[in-house]
Design brief:
The protein has a single domain, classed as Orthogonal Bundle (Tetracycline Repressor, domain 2), CATH 1.10.357.10. α1 packs across α4, α1 packs across α6 and α6 crosses α8. The chain has 9 helices and no strands. The chain is mostly helical and 201 residues long. Helices cover 68% and strands 0% of the residues. The longest helix is centred in the middle third of the chain and has 24 residues. It starts with 15 loop residues before the first helix and ends with a helix. Keywords: DNA-binding, Transcription, Transcription regulation. One of its GO terms (molecular function) is DNA-binding transcription factor activity. Pfam families: TetR_N (PF00440).
C-alpha cells in the first residue's frame, strides 16, 4: 500500500525581507480565494515551507498579517500607478495628473489584477463589522482616498469631495459587476463610458 510522501518544509534560508514578501504574497492569494475568515495560518505556513511559529516570527499575529497584506498591496499599487503616469510616487497626488487621468490609470491597473481586486472587495465587505481586524484600516483608507481624489479636482469643480465620492462609488460598483461576470463585463470599457458622465467637460 502506497502512502503519500511526508510534507517537506522548505528549509532554504531567505533574507528576512524576502521571506516576509513571500508570506504576504501567499496570504494575498489565500484571502482572495477564501476571505479572511477562511484563512488558515497553517495553510499560509505550508505554502511558504515554514512552521506556523516560524511564519509568525516574521509577521506577528493573524490580525497584524492581514493589515500588513493590505498595506503591502497599497504600496505595490502606488508604485505601479506612478510608473503608468510617469511620475515619482511622492508626487502622485500633487502637481500634475488630472482626476480623469488618475482614474483611468487606476482602472487599467485593476483590470490586470482581478485576484487583488477580489481580495479588497471581499475584505472591505467583511470589515464593515466593527470587530473585524481591518475595520479601522478600511475606514482610514476610504478617508485618505477621498482626500487624494478630491485634491485632484479641487480647481475644476465646486464640490470636489462630492465628486470624489461619486467616483469611488462608480468604480467600486463596476468592479463588483466585473468580478462577478468577467466574461460579460469589460472593466476598462465600462469605466470609460461612466467617465463621460462623471467628467462631462
Amino acid at each position: 500500500m502506497q502512502t503519500s510522501p511526508p510534507f517537506r518544509r522548505d528549509r532554504a534560508r531567505l533574507p528576512a525581507a524576502e521571506r516576509r514578501r513571500q508570506i504576504l504574497e501567499m496570504t494575498t492569494k489565500l484571502i482572495a480565494e477564501r476571505g479572511f475568515w477562511g484563512l488558515s495560518m497553517q495553510d499560509v505556513a505550508d505554502g511558504c515551507g515554514l512552521t506556523v511559529p516560524g511564519m509568525l516570527h516574521h509577521v506577528g499575529s493573524k490580525d497584524s498579517l492581514l493589515v500588513a497584506v493590505l498595506e503591502y498591496r497599497d504600496e505595490q499599487d502606488a508604485r505601479s500607478l506612478a510608473e503608468m503616469l510617469g511620475r515619482p510616487v511622492h508626487q502622485l497626488w500633487t502637481d500634475g495628473p488630472s482626476l480623469p487621468e488618475v482614474c483611468a490609470a487606476l482602472v487599467r491597473r485593476n483590470a490586470e489584477q482581478p485576484e487583488i481586486v477580489r481580495l479588497f472587495a471581499v475584505l472591505e465587505a467583511e470589515s464593515l463589522a466593527p470587530g473585524h481586524p481591518a475595520h479601522d484600516y478600511f475606514k482610514a483608507r476610504q478617508s485618505r482616498t477621498l482626500d487624494e481624489l478630491s485634491s485632484l479636482a479641487a480647481d475644476t469643480v465646486a464640490n470636489p469631495r462630492e465628486l470624489a465620492a461619486q467616483v469611488m462609488a462608480m468604480m467600486d460598483g463596476l468592479q463588483i459587476q466585473w468580478l462577478r461576470d468577467p466574461q460579460t463585463y469589460d472593466l476598462v470599457r465600462s469605466w470609460e463610458a461612466a467617465a463621460t458622465r462623471l467628467f462631462p467637460s
